[in-house]
Amino acid sequence: MERKGFKLGKFLISSPNFYQSGNFHFAFRYLRTKSVSNCNSPEKLKLEPGNINGLDEAMNLYKNMAGKRPFPRIQQFNQLLSRLVYLKEYSASILLFNDICNLGISVTEYTMNVAMNSYCLSNRIDYGFSVLAMFFKRGCVPDSITFNTLLKGLFRENRVSEAQELFRKIVREGLCELTVVTYGTVIDGLCKSGNTAVAMELLGVMEKGSCCKPNINVYNMVIDSLCKVKKMESALEFFDELIGKGVTPDIFTYNALICGLCNLSRWEQVKVLVTEMADCRIYPDRVTFNTILDALCKEGLVDEAVDVLRIMMQKNVVPDAVSYNSLMDGYCLQGRVDEARNVFDSMPSRNIAPTILSFNILINGYCKKPKIDDAVHLFREMPRKGFKPDVTTYSTLLHGLFHSGRYSCAMKLFDELQTVGLKPNFYTYCNLLDGLCTNGQTEQALLLLDELEHKGEHLHTSYYTIVMDGLCKANEVDKARVVFNDLPSKGLQPNVVTYTILIKGCCQNGLLLLQF
């Protein structure tokens, strides 16, 4: 094993050493001296996962632990680090790991695996490999959990070829025991990166091998991938093959197939699968019902969706915010915004808290009706209900105000968006440019394009297409042609919509024979 470790150690020798970074130590000193909220008798807190509910509590507890002599057992520090990862406080987990090392506390393979996982979940797989180098430096042997973490990290950053190469190296050099989880990590990564065919080849290798047979979870990864790329015939054929091999499907298998069929509006086959589930004593869960409910709403079959919700409750499956958001969206798509509001208002009485999406759906429904006053009122009501509007909320209302002719209100709202610290996104700028053009402010739209260019914002052909459309409608085709001709100099290429708008503008202004 030493020789294998030495080979991999040389492979990793160029990995960045984040632990020596001055910024890293500065950040940790800031965290350690940062004022944190007082916990009630932190000395009495037991290191049980449910006892730490936030970063302040975790930091308070860590300061208490690090101040004790002798130090608590490393297992206690491990529990704290794991809890921080569970709370998605990855940076804090990394910072504490570094301080534990600086304090001279002897870390274990488990500690290093947690740190590595934190890096990978932070999309810093390069630093994850530096932790692997620590294994060899400390004379520790990385196990399958270590390599599974690295594989997952590489796939997470879409570094597919590197993940494949690492997996080949693991197999070729026997760096760790190959488990179902190892194969599953690679198969899942391949599927999610659009390499389902390669994933199926690896699955075949597993089936033919003697040491590690695939379980239903691995099969589900392939089925889910096939369904998501709308290869339903292949997914159903694969499913039938599983049954023929004696593999027992579970709720996740059926949910993946039902979702794929719903997305293609193949309702009869959905009914067949639901019946099959009952025959196998596998009963629809919340995901099953929400999938069907959402698909029906998107199809405009909102009344049928209400029936599904009723059946859901009859089966003692409790609806959640996702269920009600889908129903609200279905009503709004049909212009039945008052019924959507009734659904929204009924949520608290059913002990279901609305989400930011609930507000955004209803505000969007009001804007499209249009009931702009109701949209603004709901928007202003959000902070009183404990919700902070996000960039989607602002962008939606911005579009509604512009298209209701409330130009000045829309511009004030855009200023407010920036004042509260939100960053406009692609849809915000599209709505703003469209709103300016719709309200006869094409010069302002052109100035905004210049401002975006000078600010170094990521430019999109859609921005220029919107302004060109506004210019053509304002009979300013010459200016539209200038915008069109300047696209290549900005590193952008016109698309079919861009061409269509300019051709239409030229035709309407008798300029068909002129070259662009």
Walkthrough of the structure:
The protein is an all-alpha fold. The chain is built from 28 helices and no strands. Helix 8 (144-156) packs antiparallel against helix 9 (160-173) and helix 13 (232-244) packs antiparallel against helix 14. The chain is globular. The N and C termini lie far apart (68 Å).
Spell out the blueprint of helices and strands.
Blueprint: H1 2-11, H2 22-33, H3 55-66, H4 74-86, H5 90-102, H6 109-121, H7 125-137, H8 144-156, H9 160-173, H10 180-192, H11 196-208, H12 216-228, H13 232-244, H14 251-263, H15 267-279, H16 286-298, H17 302-314, H18 321-333, H19 337-346, H20 356-368, H21 372-381, H22 391-403, H23 407-419, H24 426-438, H25 442-455, H26 461-473, H27 477-486, H28 496-508
Helix pairs in contact: 2-5, 4-5, 4-6, 5-6, 6-7, 6-8, 7-8, 8-9, 8-10, 10-11, 10-12, 11-12, 12-13, 12-14, 13-14, 14-15, 14-16, 16-17, 16-18, 17-18, 18-19, 18-20, 19-20, 20-21, 20-22, 21-22, 22-23, 22-24, 24-25, 24-26, 25-26, 26-27, 26-28, 27-28
Beta strand %? under 5%
Shape: globular
Radius of gyration from the alpha-carbon trace, in angstroms? 28 Å
Oligomer: single chain
* Class by SSE composition: mainly alpha
Q: Assign a percent range to the helix content.
A: 55-70%
